[in-house]
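During the reporting period the student researcher (J.K.) took over the structure-prediction task from the postdoctoral fellow and processed the backlog of single-chain submissions. One of the processed entries is reproduced below for the supervisory committee.
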Amino acid sequence: MGIGEGLAGQAVMERKSIQVASPSEIEGDPVQGPFMAKEDAHTYYAVPLINKGRVEGVLEIFHREPLDANEEWLEFLETLAGQAAIAIDNAELVHNMANTNFKLIQAYDNTIKGWAHALDLRDKETEDHSQRVTEMTVNIAGRWA
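J.K. obtained the following structure tokens:
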């Protein structure tokens, strides 16, 4: 299913919640329709997960009984969707930060190795000595980490 297809896609494209109060209203939906029929669901909600103007996903609620949600319940659903979007964004930030930190450590290690190699090329008498010292330093630092 592509963006904009089905009720979940419609919620994304319109950036607003969609409510379906009876199974007959959703029969034509290629994704939710068969699922609602199979699960005997009566009510459906699709709430876009929007954070910082970006859609992170869609929160879909299926209910097997007719559900006459009041304003307070709908506000709670919107708040829950907003918090889920923030949590997804924060998880992405943590993942990206860990990835960047890993790349920074690799770059730092490669810089030290490059300096050691440059020293070896400059002074033939201490050739490979700098490399051995670097390896020993990395091993000792690894034990303390």
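The committee noted the following: The first helix runs from residue 6 to 14.
J.K. will present the remaining backlog at the next meeting.
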